[in-house]
Design goal:
about 200 residues, mainly alpha, 6 helices, about 35% helix, about 0% strand, elongated
Length: about 200
């Protein structure tokens, strides 16, 4: 028979809509087993089962208890005892520097006064206690940011910080800041303008 019935139609290829409505389900059985074989296994060896272990204990910090003064150093820090404060230990490193700052700052101030024909009335010399207060205020400036330097001594209720005024007057702080020096500019009669760090070489 050459003519076939119309009811028997040729099979159609699956349409795009049918594939979108029923996406093929992925087969996880083969992929999971392959992944497990690839991780941590060497060809020719049996896979090792994973084991849970406790995290390592934190290391204990060993604190050395120093008794007495070290050999050869007793003469340099004879006043340092187990009851000494952290400030007294700090002074071992900075006391000499602060003394240098005081000497050179006062020396530079008098050099500037000698250059004036009508010499103004000199201010009192800077002391070591004032230099320590000056350095402490300078470090504190970064914790309370103001627009201008004089604003730290502002007396307005909403802006004032009593710590600065109680530690040092604003005019005194500006005086030390203006004449702060580390060394004599005319030391050995040589003025080296090519060395930008010359004024701090001694420190």
């Amino acid at each position: 028979m050459q003519h076939e019935s119309k009811d028997e139609e040729e099979p159609r290829p699956p349409s795009q809509w049918s594939s979108l409505s029923q996406p093929p389900s992925p087969d996880y059985s083969t992929s999971s087993s392959e992944d497990e074989d690839d991780v941590g296994n060497v060809p020719g060896q049996q896979p090792q089962p994973s084991q849970w272990t406790l995290p390592p204990k934190p290391r204990r910090h060993l604190v050395h208890n120093f008794i007495g003064a070290p050999n050869g150093k007793s003469s340099e820090a004879a006043h340092i005892t187990p009851e000494s404060t952290p400030l007294s230990v700090l002074l071992l490193f900075f006391a000499e520097i602060v003394t240098l700052l005081v000497v050179e700052t006062n020396h530079y101030y008098h050099q500037i006064l000698d250059n004036f024909e009508d010499r103004p009335s000199p201010q009192r010399e800077v002391t070591e206690a004032e230099m320590f207060s000056f350095l402490a205020l300078t470090l504190q400036l970064g914790h309370t940011v103001q627009d201008r330097l004089k604003d730290y001594w502002m007396k307005m209720e909403q802006f004032r910080t009593p710590f600065y005024g109680q530690t040092m007057a604003c005019a005194r702080y500006c005086h030390i800041l203006c004449f702060l020096h580390f060394m004599d500019n005319n030391r050995n009669g040589v003025d080296r303008t090519d060395d930008r760090l010359e004024n701090t070489r001694l420190v």
